[in-house]
Write a structure and sequence with these properties.
alpha/beta; globular
């Protein structure tokens, strides 16, 4: 983050922002980064995560994620040019020997190993076989333990589990429910190794989260003909999507953090904050969240801070001067 920008939120100057949208919203993300750099003298985010449609992917298995190889290459080169690290979300739980030979996954690993100016490009994994493959064949890429891994493979989540994962991986995704457990987080040393999701809109202590993650992995392996009716039936009785549950039920309301809660995590020593965006139809909600979090709002001219977002979207118009 560039120091000294008058627009920057004063309480979180060292925060590392990690946004979704790689290989989906690349045009908007690159334009937003350049706009904030040139107009506001700050770097709005440092990491972008995502993955195009392939068997190693999970959770982002949507038809609009299909991309031509040249589009992926251009996006990767743009991120490299701007010094933005790319975290490939290869979080499928169910990969076997056949799936580990997937040519798309290997091509992406080769590309981001070679185009890695920050030396921080990474792969987020949930499968032990893929972890060992990355470690053996693509040592230039860092390894990150996925939320899917800790959800489906670690029935007891305590400080010792997180310390073990921090020894095995370069970084560790903290389970969204644990982001709200300060008594656990305070006991974690080397807080730079942990990544906290701050805009998780699933319900708290979701009983079907492991089942949901496994369903997503099955879907990725059988994209064209997978029947998800069994999951949709389970979801219908879970409170997901019910406005009253999400906003008012104290035990099952959304996990997304408010500003004081985020500030408390920052004061505790955490610096890597991840904004998920897999449920968004486009980049607008994600960038609105990011503007709210990175820009200051404590001055008499705070409205002009939020107007920066309006000016950015206007700048994307072909008729607007850049």
């Amino acid at each position: 983050m560039k120091a000294g920008s008058p627009y920057l939120h004063p309480h979180r100057p060292e925060a590392v922002w990690d946004v979704s949208g790689a290989f989906v919203d690349d045009r908007e993300l690159v334009a937003f980064y350049e706009y904030c750099r040139d107009a506001l003298s700050l770097e709005p985010f440092h990491i972008v995560h995502g993955a195009p449609l392939c068997p190693w992917n999970s959770g982002r298995v949507l038809s609009h994620m299909m991309r031509e190889a040249e589009d992926i290459r251009e996006a990767g080169l743009a991120y490299a040019r701007l010094g933005i690290s790319v975290y490939l979300t290869f979080t499928n739980l169910l990969l076997g020997p056949r799936e580990l030979k997937d040519p798309v996954g290997h091509a992406l690993c080769r590309f981001f190993s070679r185009n890695n100016p920050t030396a921080r490009n990474a792969v987020i994994v949930a499968n032990d076989g893929l972890r060992e493959l990355i470690r053996r064949e693509y040592p230039e890429l860092r390894l990150v333990s996925s939320v899917l891994h800790i959800t489906n493979n670690e029935p007891v989540r305590n400080p010792d589990v997180y310390r073990r994962l921090a020894d095995e991986y370069d970084e560790v995704m903290v389970h969204p429910d644990d982001v709200r457990r300060p008594e656990l987080l305070e006991k974690l040393e080397d807080k730079d190794k942990y990544i906290l999701i701050i805009n998780e809109y699933c319900i708290r202590n979701c009983p079907i989260r492991p089942y949901h993650y496994r369903t997503l992995s099955e879907y990725a392996l059988n994209f064209l003909s997978y029947d998800d009716s069994h999951f949709m039936k389970a979801k219908a009785g879970n409170g997901c999507g019910e406005l009253h549950t999400l906003l008012s039920d104290e035990t099952r309301r959304v996990l997304a953090l408010n500003e004081p809660e985020l500030d408390a995590l920052y004061d505790m020593g955490f610096r890597h904050f991840k904004l998920q965006g897999r449920g968004h139809a486009n980049a607008a909600p994600l960038l609105t969240d990011l503007l709210r979090l990175i820009l200051r709002s404590d001055t008499a001219t705070q409205n002009s801070m939020h107007a920066a977002g309006v000016r950015f979207w206007e700048s994307l118009s072909p008729a607007s001067p850049r």
